[in-house]
Write a structure and sequence with these properties.
InterPro entries: P-loop_NTPase. It is a single chain. With about 130 residues, the protein is mainly alpha-helical. It contains 4 helices and 3 strands; from the N terminus they run E-H-H-E-H-H-E. A 3-stranded parallel β-sheet has the order 2-1-3, with helices on both faces. Helix 3 crosses helix 4. The longest helix is centred in the middle third of the chain and has 16 residues.
């Protein structure tokens, strides 16, 4: 299990139950297909400052604490090329992906390849920064 999230849990989060329920439903946590690796996606969007990050954090911590110990979560900050690279580096370090610290390695490409491989499903690392 892997959880890489750069924000602490917000104990003061309130409301947004409808959005969280829709997110849980869209991501289908109750019925994974038998014998298949599955990935579902959802998108939170809206104006700056309306709480997208807090909703995502509430969802991630619910997932980690209450739902499935086998679910992995990778929080990737794509607000700039530097932040995107740092997020991928954090994943590579925490999951000890072979070769991430080799000179000339494209960490982003390495993490992408690793995430697409079956090998990534066997990882048991966790990082939740506070």
């Amino acid at each position: 299990r892997t959880v890489v999230v750069p924000y602490a849990y917000n104990p003061n989060f309130v409301g947004r139950r409808e959005i969280l329920d829709r997110l849980r439903s869209a991501l289908g946590h109750h019925q994974p297909p038998e014998g298949r690796v599955w990935q579902r996606k959802a998108c939170l969007y809206g104006l700056s400052g309306i709480g997208k990050t807090q909703i995502a954090l509430e969802y991630v911590y619910w997932l980690r604490d209450d739902l499935d110990p086998e679910v992995s979560v990778f929080w990737v900050d794509a607000s700039s090329p530097e932040q995107f690279w740092r997020s991928n580096l954090s994943i590579a370090q925490e999951c000890q992906i072979p070769g991430y610290d080799d000179a000339g390695t494209s960490v982003v490409a390495l993490v992408k390849t690793w995430l697409e491989s079956e090998e990534s499903g066997d990882q048991r690392c966790q990082q939740v920064k506070s």
